[in-house]
Amino acid sequence: MNLLLGILIFLSTFGGMECMAWATHKYVMHGFLWSLHADHHHKKHKSWWERNDLFFVFYALISIGCFLLWKYEIAWYALPIGIGILVYGITYFFVHDIFIHQRFKLFRNANNWYAKGLRRAHKIHHKHLGKHDGECFGMLFVPFKYFKQ
């Protein structure tokens, strides 16, 4: 029973992270912490590292905290929550940083309808260079209007 419940918690956490990422992007990154996110839109720097990458550190610390709660037997369900956050973070890194922004030169030739839709939606978001008026999408759930054949 705990295994099934753990899997359900993991899947719920992973899916919930898509909602959390959308809200964080819209209200935090394009809100009161724009100063950390702006370099992701402007690229006025030569560094591979962006201040925007600090958001990754925030979610990593939450995931690590969940692992510690599990390790010290404070909450068994913290393990599937921590794994859900970790797996979402890894997925986000591959999709956003590697596939879309090409921080590593991988997956350059992916041209299926889903890949094109993700790139198109993200490009539309990045055409707005300011704090306001940028459409915000999740990583996995992008409006279908961007998926043209």
Question: What secondary-structure arrangement, pairings included, does this model have?
Answer:
Layout lengths: L1 H31 L1 H9 L11 H18 L6 H23 L12 H14 L23
Helix pairs in contact: 1-2, 1-4, 3-4
Defining key terms:
5 helices; single chain; 149 residues; 0% strand; mainly alpha
Write a structural description.
There is one protein chain. The protein has 149 residues and is mainly α. It has a domain at 2-38 and 52-110. The chain has 5 helices and no strands. It has helices at 2-32, 34-42, 54-71, 78-100, 113-126. The chain starts with a helix and ends in a 23-residue tail after the last helix.
Please provide the ordered H/E string of secondary-structure elements. Answer: HHHHH
Q: Fraction of residues in helices?
A: 55-70%
The helix-and-strand class reads mainly alpha
Q: Please, how many helices?
A: 5
Number of strands: 0
Low-confidence stretches: none
What's the short story on this structure?
This protein is an all-alpha fold and 149 residues long.
